[in-house]
Amino acid sequence: MRAYDIVIVGGGPAGLAAAVAAKKAGAGDILILERDREMGGILNQCIHNGFGLHTFQEELTGPEYAGRFLAMARQLGIPCEIDTMVLEIGSDKVVTAMNHKKGMFRIRAGAVILAMGCRERARGALQIPGYRPAGIFSAGTAQRLVNMEGYMPGREVVILGSGDIGLIMARRMTLEGAKVKVVAERLPYCGGLQRNVVQCLEDYGIPLKLCHTVVDIRGRERLEGVTLARVDESGRPIPGTEEDYACDTLLLSVGLIPENELSRSMGVEMDRITAGPVVNESLETNIPGVFACGNVLHVHDLVDYVSEEAARAGENAARFVRGLLPECEGAVSVVAGRGVRYCVPGRIDITRMAERLPVRFRVDRIYKEALLTVRCDGKLVLHKRKKMIKPGEMEEILLPREKCLAQSGLRSIVIAVEEG
């Protein structure tokens, strides 16, 4: 059985950034396992620009951004196995995988970094009545068809959900000659970045209907139309508000789910809100030497944040295999308080945390003139004023180590939102 210092599952932006950082931090043999036929992950189909402003201080397309990290990985001599499916990871960090060349094989890892990314929520999770005609795609599938395979899904389009991929595909389909009739969102706010609302919808005159959802799908062989209806505060359609739209394509952009089947099967503790692993300040799971980063941990809005987070996971994995990561002396819980849906990391060993530890989270609704607060066992230690906070945009607070150390016997850190 071949042994590696670090095995990274996933060759997308998180896996590549983690590998580069781990190698620079002194790790020896590193192996990336990627199930697709090429490295780069979702970035390969994201041909629009807007990537890299934080990481490289310039605007890049998705393939260009991935190419930068691929070049760094090659320069550092980091090997990868493409077309390789990881079947199982044991709690002893033995990885079972298979591909066409080697068949089934096993690898022993000193540390494992989980970087499998996420997948789109499908129609089956939405309980939309109607037949199952051709013409219904997830937004990501349509993006791959148009940008990589050279196929046009349809000409008259309705988009359900206002996630970033859906907003970007509204613009992309318009540029390819399709007519995007409407983007419908069940919630009272947009699920994507505000810049995408402006650049992808408003600049092209595409209407966005909040508090609306699809209640009927027409057509048997091919989609012929959909019916939208307004929903109440409980998300139930309001009778008498139905609107019919003739269309041949329905794109679904209704949320992303972290790919954590491998994580669960190996015994990693999961967060019920993020559907990703619970990690500590080093991005280490409850299994020593198993780290998680990127969209497998929680869904990010910017790939630059994925790379930054993955670099921390890679550095800490390198410290672990070199015996430089101290054993955990006791964890303090990071609690999502009023208005906050979740926090990453979920627990912190103050003795191991950086001088300023990034804690990332999302809020549960839109807040105006808000105050973000951090309380250690009820004592206010940090606050940050924001004119507006939205669920579609991830927030960050840099937690100072000295303020946590000043609280003797600290049991919990609560992050909350106060409005007005």
Key features?
single chain; 420 residues; alpha/beta; FAD/NAD(P)-binding domain; Immunoglobulin-like; 3 domains; 5-stranded parallel sheet; 8 helices; globular
List the helices and strands and how they pair.
Layout: E1 2-9, H1 13-24, E2 30-33, E3 49-51, E4 60-61, H2 62-75, E5 80-81, E6 85-89, E7 94-99, E8 103-114, E9 118-120, E10 136-138, H3 139-149, E11 156-160, H4 164-175, E12 179-185, H5 194-201, E13 208-210, E14 212-218, E15 225-230, E16 243-246, E17 249-252, E18 256-258, H6 261-265, E19 290-292, H7 303-321, E20 332-336, E21 340-344, E22 347-348, E23 356-363, E24 367-376, E25 379-389, E26 395-400, H8 401-405, E27 412-419
Parallel strand pairs: 1-2, 1-8, 2-5, 8-19, 10-17, 11-12, 11-17, 12-13, 20-27
Antiparallel strand pairs: 3-4, 6-7, 7-8, 9-18, 14-15, 15-16, 20-22, 21-23, 23-26, 24-25, 24-27
Helix pairs in contact: 1-2, 1-7, 3-4, 4-5
Residue fraction in strands: 25-35%
Tally of discrete structural domains:
3
- Largest sheet, strands/sense/barrel: 7 strands, mixed
Assigned CATH superfamily of the largest domain: FAD/NAD(P)-binding domain
CATH topology of the largest domain: the name is FAD/NAD(P)-binding domain
Oligomeric state of shown chains: single chain
| Second rung of CATH, namely the architecture of the largest domain | 3-Layer(bba) Sandwich
CATH uppermost class of the largest domain: Alpha Beta
Which structural class is indicated by helix and strand composition?
alpha/beta
Q: What proportion of the residues is helical, as a percent range? A: 10-25%
Mean pLDDT across every amino acid position? 95
Low-pLDDT runs of 5+ residues are none
- Our count of helices gives 8
| Termini separation | 60 Å
